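Help! Submission page says 'invalid entity' but I think these are all valid:
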Amino acid sequence: MMGGNWGKVLKVDLSSGEMEEVAIPESDYRDFLGGSGLAAKWFFDHQGWKADPLSPDNPLMIMNGPLSGTTLPGVSRLEICARSPLTGIWGEASMGGHFSPQLKRTGYDGIIVTGASDKPVYLYVTDEKAEIRDASHLWGKDNYETEELLREEVGDKRAQVISIGPAGENLVRFACVMNDRGSTAGRCGMGAVMGSKKLKAVVARGNKKFPVADEAAFKQAREKMSQLLKFSLVADGLRNFGSNVHMEYGMAIGDVPTKNWRLAYWAPGPEKLGGTAVAESILVKNHSCFACPVSCKRIVEVKSGPFALEEGPGSEYEAAAALGTLQLLDDREANHKLNEMCNRLGMDVISCGGTLAYATEAFEAGLITEKETDGIKLGWNRPQVLMELVKKIAYREGIGDDLAEGVRAMSEKYGGKEFAIHVKGLECPMHDPRALWAMALTYATSIRGACHCADANLYIELGILDVKELGAKRTWPYSAKGKAAQTVAAQKKGVIANSAVICEYAWNAAGGGISDMAMMLNSLTGFGYSVDDLAKVGDRIWYIKRALGNLMGATREDDRLPSRILEPHLEGTTSSLHTAVYPQFMSLVPMQKLRVEGFKNFTAGILSKYLYPNMDKMLTSLNKLPGFSTKRKKLEQGDLEEKRKKTVAFDEMIGEYYRLRDIDEQGRPSRRRLEELGLKKVADALHA
Amino acid sequence: MATVKLFTMLRKAAGEQGYESSARTVAEVLKEVEERYGEEVRKYLKNCIVLVNGRNIAQLKGKRTKLDKGDEVSLYPPVAGG
Ligand code: SF4
């Protein structure tokens, strides 16, 4: 018997109110695992790609995987998938917290919601019944209130709730789905899909014991993973400082996007917003997803002041950066307040932060004016303005109505595409490809748009993991060589994580072994996967998702990155043109010998602020001076050469990547590759 | 006197945010940190990123980078992945 899964999902049609149990063939579990892999298979089989994202026909798939909700460490996760209203293509978002184990114990591997209700409803699913219930009294409530009210209403403290806030109700295109107050299925606007169906929440409570193929092997696997986590430095960092431990080291290596990706290094990031500073100030305690020994979540409290917030979830790294450094915001309390507002209102912090940072730059550039903002003066490091805008977005008021469409739509309306930082319409997360080159391929070729969790490249580039088991070599962060092969392997790992389903922090902190994954999966399912089998499963899932993207209109043209995040920073001194131009420029003036560090930093600051943005003008004037022409040429050559060296060699990497992935000129996987993986029907649909 | 600033696990292992140092080079600071806090910090010092006034020492003179009065030496242990 297959274990780990129940072999069925609950299908709910909110238009008709009908519900049915649908059996899933065992071969689908074997080939696509579960989670977002199985969701992609369902989506293909049911031609989900033909539906408009906010129409009743778009299926919302809330999917556990075989590992989900078991007592292995770090498997408290599920995936929420649908066609994305933000990007228009395949959308998926992963969520931790405590919902997944309750769903597992209801006896379903997932809930698939189609249709749309004409009044607000919530779903109540237990191991005995499933009901569609009225949610009119909850409409308009924020996520924290909704969770509490629903738990009271069903009269069961252990019931778990996923819900949307006002942003989802108002169809903000980057609205998220929340559980446990601080656990988010953040990306791709899954909250808006729920909102379009008038589905306020899903409540799950179950007691059924899930089937396990080999109990003894399962216990062994649990023991091994727990031991690995016990001695992991990464887990230690996450436990002590949360995912925001990355702020410190990340800033030191130039990986933390700052001031809408303009600025290279900014000390207030690590010193004021980082995990260390949080631990020493507003941290109350750690919090954990179900059965996870890592316990990376932060509970914070700000007792008074303009950013007072009651004890509750604090910013994780992505929020600390997207609603902090990206806005050049140096107020820790304000950052956590903004994060709390996004949680309550139900918005993805990454997309929200990316859109706000774009808006600030567009305001500075005069593309958006006070006329559009109803008199609000946008600017860097203005927490009150950000708070006002966050509210306006959630309720689609004034400029908020435009911002709620995301950064791509904003830049199409107002201009400034060069600083609208997204891929395929999904705002880029908080890792900088200029620091870790593989992230360029990660963002460009991730199925759902710019995403750092779709593969393991982040951890590989940081030197935490390797991909030897998958036959690829780890590569040097600032080099194109081998990046494509590394990325293909990293993607196999990523899709396995999102289909199995496991928390990438926890798995990677435990070494991220594919053989360990096989051990866990085999103990539960009894499928007897080898490492090679899993690599093939990883490929199969990746290719079906890529094909879905193509069926929804994605081509090679969409695998592009904004040049701003590939070229040297416009400001700052860590990895900008500074080291290139500065000494050469200085050689033109008699200050060459001055090597006092303080002076250099001061000069570098001045140069970054005034000179580099006006370099062209400066060079033109210099050229007019007698004797400077040759100097100018040399300087320009040196500058270009240095810029070339410091610019991510994206074209080289992606060319090689397409070759390895067998992607044709239109961006589609070849028929041959699809058929090798048993995806003949997909090939027929794609190459019809 | 340079200011040495410790972050994340180094700060936790050291039990303090940092200290004022009279070391003249980065190499001396690293040695001093190990002596000052003992065995506990060694694993975090390995592959640690060192910034002097916000600039990676790799772009300066590495561990031989000289320190002046008022300089800030920030030590970021390789604990990351958020
Ligand atoms: S590592 Fe953190 S996010 Fe992942 S399961 Fe554990 S507590 Fe949740």
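Support: the input was valid. A stray whitespace character was the problem, and the output above is from the cleaned input. Chain B has one domain: 2-59.
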